[in-house]
Write a structure and sequence with these properties.
399 residues, alpha/beta, 13-stranded mixed β-sheet, twelve-stranded mixed β-sheet, 7 helices, 25 strands
Length: 399
């Protein structure tokens, strides 16, 4: 019996969900298994043209709801992190919302479910990235990457490392240090630094790209330590390892499946962060961005917030010691996580807090009125920032 099925049955036995709700969740899991089985048997029989027609037909027949299949878009050699994160988030959030929360115990069970999801995602991430355990016939590597021609003129840097961490900090020029283990068969006759420069580094149109073609049979466990000058634009992708950025950079997109993300002092305007189960920590800098996650927690500290949108299933959200302005717009949504906003400096206009079974604590001074959707509205009576916080079973606090 799968862990997901056990959890659903345990929740039913303990009275946390009804029989009808458990049947819906179990049906979703059965649909996933049936879909995967049908897909496996049909792929061997299709021609290329027929396959396209069948795929289009399958998409038309797929029900929009009830399919609990967060990895339907993930393959061994190529997968889209954005689709993966969005699919996990939408399917889990939809399943949780079907079960009317009744108590704090229900929230705790949803937290357990989020932990289980994190373990599943971590396992999948390792398998997708070929990073579980040491690579076959791996040899240790530790080298400094020779700066490629044209790197001094680059203002955009994109790093993808499905084999380990990406760590970036501010310096006067581009430097990159790589260490870990790589399959001997992959390196072949080249020295590690030569092999990396030939296969993983390229410059085009004032942009530096670092990463391997996902269709290449590369087996490795490597971390990247990078120094870059300030004010350049940076985007990063990892699978199960972390992304750490420290410096006055402009951030484009940061994506990871289960790795944690930590950003210090960066400019996060028009930025996008996506993670399935990794935690996100932002300290300092300026923020006008959106974040999407399934079970990862969020901490935003000591930042100048212009616009912030966070959407999570079971992650907790904490905003602390931030500064806001008259035009600030903050929208925080989580299904079973808690939302805490504290020690904010600057003018505010309204706080709208909605939770179906959690507690709402609003210590900010203002006129309080109930909302039709089981929420509370608090108005200061002056112009300023707007806060909208929504949770299904989590607590909301503005202190």
């Amino acid at each position: 019996m799968s862990e997901a099925r056990k959890m659903i049955l345990n929740m039913l036995a303990e009275g946390k969900i009804t029989v009808e709700e458990s049947e819906k969740l179990l049906a979703a899991l059965n649909a996933e298994a049936s879909q995967n089985s049908q897909k496996a048997s049909s792929e061997t029989d299709r021609s290329s043209a027929g396959e396209e027609r069948d795929r289009g037909s399958e998409r038309r027949r797929e029900p929009e709801d009830d399919y609990f299949n967060p990895f339907s878009n993930a393959t061994k050699l190529g997968f889209d992190l954005r689709n993966l994160a969005q699919t996990v988030q939408q399917t889990v959030q939809h399943a949780i919302k079907k079960a009317e929360p009744r108590s704090r115990e229900f929230k705790d069970k949803m937290k357990e479910f989020g932990t289980w999801m994190q373990e599943v995602v971590g396992t999948m991430a390792s398998e997708i990235g070929n990073v579980k355990g040491e690579p076959v016939d791996g040899i240790p590597v530790d080298f400094v990457v020779t700066p490629p021609d044209g790197v001094d003129a680059c203002n955009t840097f994109m790093f993808e490392n499905i084999f380990g961490e990406i760590r970036i900090h501010e310096g006067s020029e581009f430097k990159m240090h790589v260490n870990g283990r790589v399959s001997r068969a992959v390196i072949g006759e080249y020295q590690p630094a030569q092999w990396f420069a030939r296969n993983a580094v390229r410059v085009s149109d004032r942009s530096l790209f670092v990463g391997f073609d996902r269709n290449q049979p590369v087996k490795a466990i490597i971390d990247m330590e990078i120094t870059l000058p300030a004010d350049v634009l940076i985007s990063c992708k990892t699978v199960s390892s972390g992304i750490r950025l420290r410096g006055h950079y402009r951030i484009g997109e940061l994506k990871t499946v289960s790795g944690n993300i930590r950003i210090q002092g960066a400019n996060l305007k028009q930025s996008l962060i996506e993670t399935v189960s990794g935690a996100v920590q932002i300290e300092g800098g300026e923020i006008a961005m959106q974040i999407k996650s399934t079970s990862g927690d969020f901490l935003v500290r000591d930042s100048k917030i212009e616009e912030l949108k966070i959407n999570s299933v079971s992650g907790d959200i904490l905003l602390t010691e931030g500064s806001i302005s008259e035009n600030t717009d903050v929208r925080l949504v989580t299904t079973s996580g808690d939302i805490i906003v504290e020690k904010m400096s600057g003018p505010w206009k309204v706080v709208e807090a909605t939770t179906r079974s959690g507690e709402v604590v609003l210590d900010w001074k203002g006129d309080m009125t109930p909302l039709n959707n089981q929420g509370t509205s608090l108005k200061s009576g002056s112009t300023g920032a707007e806060f909208h916080a929504e949770s299904v079973s989590g607590d909301i606090q503005f202190t």
